[in-house]
Amino acid sequence: MNEETKQKIRQKIDEIKPMLQRDGGDVELVEITDDGIVKVRLKGACAHCMMSVMTLKIGIEGYLKKEIPEIKYVESVE
Length: 78
Description:
Layout: H1 3-21, E1 25-32, E2 37-44, H2 52-67, E3 73-76
Parallel strand pairs: 2-3
Antiparallel strand pairs: 1-2
Helix pairs in contact: 1-2
Protein backbone atom coordinates (compact mmCIF):
# COMPACT_ATOMS: atom_id res chain seq x y z
CA MET A 1 0.00 0.00 0.00
CA ASN A 2 1.51 3.32 -1.01
CA GLU A 3 2.02 6.30 1.26
CA GLU A 4 -0.71 8.34 -0.42
CA THR A 5 -3.30 5.65 0.36
CA LYS A 6 -2.02 5.34 3.94
CA GLN A 7 -2.41 9.11 4.36
CA LYS A 8 -5.99 8.91 3.05
CA ILE A 9 -6.73 6.17 5.62
CA ARG A 10 -5.36 8.39 8.40
CA GLN A 11 -7.58 11.22 7.20
CA LYS A 12 -10.69 9.01 7.10
CA ILE A 13 -9.98 7.70 10.64
CA ASP A 14 -9.81 11.34 11.79
CA GLU A 15 -13.23 11.92 10.19
CA ILE A 16 -14.71 8.99 12.18
CA LYS A 17 -13.32 10.08 15.56
CA PRO A 18 -15.87 12.85 16.35
CA MET A 19 -18.80 10.44 15.97
CA LEU A 20 -17.26 8.02 18.46
CA GLN A 21 -16.17 10.80 20.82
CA ARG A 22 -19.77 12.08 21.07
CA ASP A 23 -20.62 8.75 22.72
CA GLY A 24 -17.59 8.74 25.02
CA GLY A 25 -15.43 6.52 22.81
CA ASP A 26 -12.55 6.95 20.41
CA VAL A 27 -10.43 5.09 17.89
CA GLU A 28 -6.65 5.09 17.57
CA LEU A 29 -4.90 4.07 14.36
CA VAL A 30 -2.20 1.55 15.30
CA GLU A 31 -0.91 0.24 11.98
CA ILE A 32 -1.59 0.05 8.26
CA THR A 33 0.02 -3.00 6.72
CA ASP A 34 1.31 -3.08 3.17
CA ASP A 35 -1.20 -5.79 2.30
CA GLY A 36 -4.25 -3.66 3.21
CA ILE A 37 -5.01 -4.48 6.83
CA VAL A 38 -5.85 -1.55 9.09
CA LYS A 39 -5.25 -2.12 12.80
CA VAL A 40 -7.03 0.13 15.27
CA ARG A 41 -7.53 0.34 19.01
CA LEU A 42 -10.99 1.21 20.31
CA LYS A 43 -10.80 3.44 23.36
CA GLY A 44 -13.03 4.88 26.04
CA ALA A 45 -16.63 3.70 25.96
CA CYS A 46 -15.98 1.86 22.67
CA ALA A 47 -13.34 -0.38 24.21
CA HIS A 48 -15.79 -2.29 26.40
CA CYS A 49 -19.13 -1.70 24.73
CA MET A 50 -21.25 -4.69 23.72
CA MET A 51 -21.68 -3.06 20.31
CA SER A 52 -17.94 -2.61 19.69
CA VAL A 53 -17.81 -5.39 17.07
CA MET A 54 -20.59 -3.66 15.13
CA THR A 55 -18.86 -0.32 15.52
CA LEU A 56 -15.66 -1.84 14.20
CA LYS A 57 -17.04 -3.90 11.30
CA ILE A 58 -20.11 -2.00 10.14
CA GLY A 59 -19.09 1.50 11.14
CA ILE A 60 -15.34 1.82 10.79
CA GLU A 61 -14.53 -0.99 8.34
CA GLY A 62 -17.60 -0.39 6.20
CA TYR A 63 -16.85 3.32 5.88
CA LEU A 64 -13.14 2.85 5.18
CA LYS A 65 -13.66 0.09 2.58
CA LYS A 66 -16.28 2.19 0.80
CA GLU A 67 -13.89 5.15 0.63
CA ILE A 68 -10.68 3.15 0.05
CA PRO A 69 -11.32 -0.18 -1.74
CA GLU A 70 -7.68 -1.29 -1.30
CA ILE A 71 -8.41 -2.05 2.36
CA LYS A 72 -8.90 -5.78 2.99
CA TYR A 73 -10.27 -5.45 6.51
CA VAL A 74 -10.05 -3.54 9.79
CA GLU A 75 -8.94 -5.36 12.93
CA SER A 76 -9.04 -4.28 16.56
CA VAL A 77 -5.90 -4.75 18.62
CA GLU A 78 -5.26 -4.28 22.34
